[in-house]
Please model this.
Amino acid sequence: MACLFRTLGLACLLAAAALLVAGCEGGDTPGMPDLPASGVTDTEVRIGSSLALSGHAKYLGIQTLRGALSYIDRVNAQGGVHGRRIKVVAYDDAYDPPECVVNTQRLIVQDQVFALFCYVGTPTTVKILPLVEQARIPLIGMFTGANALRVPFNRYLINVRASYYQETEAMVKHLVEDLDLKRIAVFYQYDAFGFDGLTGTELALKRYGLAPVARGTYVRGTMNIEEGLHKIVDSGAQAVVIIGTYDPCAKFIMEARAKGFDPLFYTISFVGAEELARRLSGERGEVLVMSQVVPPPNTLAPVPSLADQADYIELLKKRYPDDEPNFIGLEGFFNAKVLVEGLRRAGPNLTREGFITAIDSIDDFSLAESLNVSFSPTDHQGLDKVYFTRLSDGRFSLITDWQAIRLELQAKQQAAGKGRGQ
Model:
């Protein structure tokens, strides 16, 4: 009951704050002055984040935040942006939607942050969209490819990464055209995240006149994969699209193989490559493919033409010496680069509407060599490229030869057929 009253109280404060913001930041309101927003002083700009720092998705939240802070620390050490240091106020939501809502209310009302940043996960992020709309506050660099953050277009939502629909569409194309696999099943987390991955896969399969041969689910925050696994094993699927977090995904793969069911396994980027690889360290011979929305960190070079030659690996090592460079941290790092570039372009007289207009002006901005990001007033997704990696020798590496995977799968199928014949 106390939590309910706290939430209602914060909601009322948020409504009042939204009215205040609408009055202070003219933006879209004719005749109103465009004054500095909340969270901005002469020496500081406050940015707020709610993400999983504990619980079953904590690796995703921790690495997203650390990747971002690695770059922000460097910017602050160089004097900040227009004399303002960037202060990130981050709260743990443990990948729990109600907690994310409470954290966001607190960030907007009590902490008076200028913008929201680096939220992690679909079920959490989609829950705070009404708050974003009400407060007219920018939300930038979310670690989720959810379609609800892209359609319909929302001026206050700024995505850096490619969408889940793009990831699943690209993978289904490889499954059908390059690997000649038609019997494809989907195992997914039973929530907004899993539904998004399922829908993306179904839409992609439909283009080939196909549909999933089986669908299996598990409940977010649990390891209860058995019922979903049973459905998929019985379907005889040649490939399984897995939409979930690293622990249940790893359990699904290990138990499937223990049952003699060894198709091609595919997971989308949110799963967390490094943590999944750690949990599968005892497995050998599986064909596990993962799509990524950033390239492997060790394949990138700083931009030689820019004075700012910040390198993720170098800056991560300086701030967090015990951490290994990873895909998730690199995405957080790129989110921070977009945030900082938007602040720079917005100029010293910083407002929320001015910041969004500044983001809209970013065109072919280099995040790293051969990796540019672009936005516009009608397109708030900066990157579209999808990369494919395969687990091999304990790490995910870029796939360079789909034909080799096809031959490997055919050999496994033939061996399984001989085994049944004996």
In short: Residues 1-35 have pLDDT under 50 and may be disordered. The first helix runs from residue 2 to 24. The chain has 14 helices and 14 strands.
